[in-house]
Structures are given as C-alpha cells and as structure tokens.
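Something for you to look into today, if you have time. Just paste the record in under my message, thanks.
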Amino acid sequence: MGVSVPAVPDHRYRPDRSGRGLPRCGVVAGPLFVTIKPDARDRVMSSLRAHFRPEFLNRVDDIVLFKPLTQPEIENVVELMAGELRARLADRQMTLELTDEARGFIAGDVSDGAAIRVGVADGEITVTYDYPSQ
C-alpha cells in the first residue's frame, strides 16, 4: 500500500494567512476505488502528521490510498503497452508477438529501477536486465 498525492496545478491561487497567493493543486484519481482498511488510513495519516507540518497538510485537498497492482494487473498493463507498440509498428508493416512467458518476465521478474536491454546476438534478439548500482 502506498500514498499517492500527484499534484497537478490548476492555475488557481489560494491565499495563505499572510495574504500571499500559493498555487492550489489538484489530485488526480483513477476510476477504480478499493476499500482500504480503516487502520491503514489511520497509520498513513499518523505518518503524514509526523513528517509534514500542519500548514502543508491543511493545503492538501485529498489523500488517495492505493493497493499495489497484482501480477495479472501488471501483465495487463504490459499487454496494453505492447498493443500501443504494435499499432506503431503496423505503420511500418511490422508485427510484434509477445508470448505469455515474455509478458510474465517483463511484469514479474524485472523489478522497479531495472534497465532492460534488447539486443541482437548471432542474429537472435536477446533480452537482458540489470539493476543500477546504489
């Protein structure tokens, strides 16, 4: 579970106590709402209060809690992105086939922050990945 506060300026200003105008930010929310356990919301709010000043939290219109995507949902995202690539390749009379194994590899075996390299070795396409050194 994470906290998502993607601020998108909407070009309106809300004055603070001193009368200066501060940008008003909106929150982008998706169409799917999932019930979050009340204790999870309480823990998130407690953590936010511990890290941010009340002046900042008072300017936040909404806090959206979300659950991580499941493996099948991530595979659907991979398929949607592959579909976009297929459409672009069709303009060049090319096709792309993604096996279930490849879709699962991209969606599950490779973690956030990894660099995926697609290359050619001995006339065959190769796919490798590694993680940035930290």
